[in-house]
């Protein structure tokens, strides 16, 4: 069988994979935005409500990954380029190559946007943890935080390991 006789199947599969992946990415961007809004407002219940959507999206993305792997394996067995979807799409006939190339570029762009959203959420979560740890320290010390190092009584009033000098 000629490798090009399979190209309509590969074209359709690549296009469908990219369409499904794009839809999942778009939904994930919405979920990450909603999660950031809920973190910023302290809406713990709202964040927990997003968990089921996140789980469904993770499953959809895993399925896309499995489809991608199977598609590239089949392309390799058919003698087609199979290092990645971009390479496979570039090997398609000219009439479909441009559209597939556009889909690949849009999907790659969304990946960068997802990375940005994920990093933003991570920074927000880290700042929240830092804020909470500072609040706990204030509560634990009664708001009287003394320096660990320095001159005078405050430097020596705490931290003696065995004996406290009088």
Strand content: under 5%
Number of domains: 1
Q: Which residues sit in consecutive blocks of at least 5 with pLDDT less than 50?
A: 1-6
- C-alpha Rg (nearest Å): 27 Å
Shape: elongated
Our measurement of the CA-to-CA distance between the termini, rounded to an integer number of angstroms, reads 93 Å
Q: Which structural class do the helices and strands define?
A: mainly alpha
Mean pLDDT: 85
**SS elements, strand count:** 0
What is the percent of helical residues?
A: over 70%
* Total DSSP helices: 6
- Along the chain, the helix and strand elements come as HHHHHH
Please give the largest β-sheet: none
In short:
The protein is mainly α. Helix content is 76%, strand content 0%. The chain has one domain (3-127).
Describe the protein in words.
Helix content is 76%, strand content 0%. The protein has one domain. The protein has 6 helices and no strands. It is mainly alpha-helical and 166 residues long. The N terminus is likely disordered.
Please tag this protein with its features:
single chain; 166 residues; mainly alpha; 76% helix; 0% strand; disordered N terminus
Itemize the secondary structure elements and their pairings.
Elements lengths: L6 H35 L2 H6 L1 H27 L7 H6 L3 H48 L11 H4 L10
Helix pairs in contact: 1-3, 1-5
